[in-house]
Amino acid sequence: MDADTDTDTGTGTAAPLLRRARAADAALLAEVWLRSFAAALPTVRRAHDDEAVRGWFAHLVTGCETWGAFTQERAVGLLVLDGGEVEQLYLAPDWRGRGLGDRLVTLAKERRPDGLGLWTFQVNAPARRFYRRHGFTEAARTDGARNEEREPDVRYVWQP
């Protein structure tokens, strides 16, 4: 299933194609994750090095419902759903604020119409605002003891 392409808000360029990721996309999507994590979460300790992240993405693409956002040149976003969980939603730094995150969360809701849950780090204020804007509500906070980064986090849920 492919999602529609539109025109990117404000730029007049073609919006990225949203499609199910293939095994061959894993390395491209891992690079999006690595760039995005570094830009959005510079104070958060990464639990795994770049090579481990790339290996993890090979598993995510084949083991979970993984979607990529692709321009003609490169991968620019990703969404990983595992059951009712948004496991990952990351955008290339230069694609933030252009409507791509909105498209990915809308896709997640379409794919899981009964509801979604996710975790994000407390320090990630832009992500927290984004999820609240999309109807997610805070359900819990932790001190980070349960995640590999040991970073305080927040649980959000969306119920239609």
Which helices and strands appear, and what pairs or packs with what?
Elements: E1 17-20, H1 26-40, H2 50-63, E2 65-70, E3 75-82, E4 85-91, H3 100-111, E5 116-121, H4 125-133, E6 137-142, E7 153-158
Antiparallel strand pairs: 1-2, 2-3, 3-4, 5-7, 6-7
Helix pairs in contact: 1-2
Brief overview, please?
The protein is built from 4 helices and 7 strands. With 160 residues, it is an alpha+beta fold.
- In DSSP terms (H or I, runs of 4 or more residues), the helix count works out at 4
Low-confidence stretches: 1-9
**How is the main sheet built?**
4 strands, antiparallel
Termini Cα gap:
23 Å
The dominant shape is globular
- Neighbour order of strands in the largest sheet: 1-2-3-4
At CATH level 3, the topology of the domain at 17-112 is: Aminopeptidase
At the fourth CATH level, what is the homologous superfamily of the domain at 17-112?
Gcn5-related N-acetyltransferase (GNAT)
Q: Which range best describes the helical content: under 10%, 10-25%, 25-40%, 40-55%, 55-70% or over 70%?
A: 25-40%
Describe this structure in words.
This protein is α+β, with helices and mostly antiparallel strands and 160 residues long. It has a domain at 17-112: Aminopeptidase (3-Layer(aba) Sandwich). 31% of the residues lie in helices and 27% in strands. It has four helices and seven strands, in the order βααβββαβαββ. Strands 1-2-3-4 form a four-stranded antiparallel sheet, sandwiched between helices. Helix 1 crosses helix 2 (50-63). The longest helix is centred in the N-terminal third of the chain and has 15 residues, at 26-40. The chain is globular, with a radius of gyration of 15 Å.
